[in-house]
TrEMBL record:
This is Electron transfer flavoprotein subunit beta. InterPro entries: ETF_a/b_N, ETF_b, Rossmann-like_a/b/a_fold. The gene is fixA_2. The lineage of its organism: Bacteria, Pseudomonadati, Thermodesulfobacteriota, Desulfobacteria, Desulfobacterales. SUPFAM superfamilies: Adenine nucleotide alpha hydrolases-like (SSF52402). One of its GO terms (molecular function) is electron transfer activity.
Length: 252
């Protein structure tokens, strides 16, 4: 079995929204670059499947050559090689077409894993487009994957609960974050070994852009509201007030 995990290098997603600066509707170049948050969950899921089923695991990405250094972390986590399509398009359809080209060159891919959404634009649509292009089944927001005979048995987490699903054949699964796929920290030996593993760089192909014009991009404004509760007299009553307010805000 051959598993591909998609990984994208994005601007630092830990910068608070209130401090984030846009240039031409995208993150300013001064922010450091790092691997996408959900992508690391997808890599961890892929490594666990590789270890359980003795599979092959390839990391595939679309981006600039400077991303290779950052993507080596994915290889250090358990990937066997890295395939990077060199390009700088921001169009999801063009990115999906280039990822398909890279996967087609690998020829024998059975399963494609991807983070449920990127950590830069949070659009979460490239993997669905890619599945359509590849002719693979697509299941979003997957928390757990098991091979069940010739089928995949997956647990899909949504805001309203979870579902157990099965699908046969080749599939693209978008991976959500759960405690079971917290990314492992590569050991020093793996980090050094990753520097010697093969990296295939591919030239991008032309693709058809989406028929959508991006008119405006805004960063959400963060509003902080602070309320002090009386704590000097009756702590039990204060705790009741706090619980009531948390329930009103649907925080518990």
């Amino acid at each position: 079995m051959h598993i591909v995990v998609l990984a994208k290098v994005v601007p630092d997603y830990e910068v608070p929204a209130g401090d984030f600066e846009l240039t031409n509707s995208r993150a300013h170049a001064r922010y450091k670059r790092m691997m996408g948050l959900y992508d690391e969950n997808a890599i961890e899921s892929g490594v666990q499947l590789k270890e359980k089923y003795s599979s092959s695991l390839t990391i595939v990405s679309y981006g600039i050559k400077g991303d290779i250094q950052i993507l080596r972390k994915a290889v250090a986590m358990g990937g066997e090689k890295l395939s990077l399509v060199v390009g700088n398009s921001d169009d999801p359809h063009i990115i999906a077409a280039n990822l398909k080209m890279a996967i087609d060159k690998l020829e024998d891919v059975d399963l494609v894993l991807a983070g449920q959404q990127s950590a830069d634009m949070d659009r979460g649509i490239v993997h669905g487009m890619l599945a359509e292009m590849l002719g693979f089944t697509f299941i979003p927001q997957v928390a757990k994957i098991e091979q069940d005979g010739d089928q995949w048995k997956v647990i899909q987490n949504t805001e309203s609960g979870s579902s157990e699903l099965k699908c046969g054949g080749k599939a693209v699964l978008s991976i959500t974050s759960v405690p079971e796929n917290v990314p492992r920290i590569p050991v020093v030996r793996s980090i050094f070994a990753a520097k010697k593993k093969p990296v295939d760089t591919l030239s991008e192909i032309e693709g058809d852009a989406m028929l959508i014009d991006e008119v405006l991009v805004n960063i959400p404004k963060m509003e902080s509201v602070c309320e002090f509760l009386p704590a000097e007299d009756d702590m039990a009553e204060t705790a009741k007030i706090l619980l009531s307010k948390l329930r009103e805000e649907r925080l518990i």
